[in-house]
Amino acid sequence: MTGYVPGVAFRAVLDACVLYPFSLRDVLLRLAERELYDVYWSDRILAEMTRNLIANDLTDQAGAERLVRLMSRTFDAAAVSVEAVDRRAGHDQPPQGPTRAGGRGCRSR
Fold it and tell me: Against a cut of 0.85, is the pTM above it?
């Protein structure tokens, strides 16, 4: 795994809606691993993903913790606050549209 490489022109905040389903999470993280974009998420997003994976019996607590550790180790600069994402992207408002994976009102359950 190549890890996180800052400076890619395209940035995306992945929320729980796209991190919850395995196949979508896998595709998006593989693309980020190939340095096609910079990936970001918050602790709140990871907590929501974890909570829903456990609640829907897709993994247990230990499995969810392993997943978060692996994601965090592979993309070591991805976990930031929404404000930090906005500053890095040069936005006054949170990213929307094509730069934000997932959407408002999206439910990961």
Answer: no
Task: Write out the two tokens for 7.
Answer: 């400076």
Domain count, the chain: 1
Of all helices (H) and strands (E), which one includes residue 39? strand 38-40
Enumerate the β-bridge partners of residue 12: 39
Q: Are 94 and 20 in contact (CB under 8 A)?
A: no
Q: For the segment 39-74, what is each residue's pLDDT rounded down to a tens digit? A: 999 998 999 999 999 999 999 999 999 999 999 999
Q: What tokens appear for 105 in the block?
A: 């009102």
Tokens 């907590």, located at residue: 47
Within a domain: 106: no
Q: Which residue reads 């247990």 in tokens?
A: 60
Report how far Cα 3 is from the mean position of its chain's Cα atoms. 14
The structure tokens listed for 84 are: 């930090």
> For residue 48, what are the domain limits?
11-101
Half-sphere exposure of 76 (CA within 13 A, CB side): 6
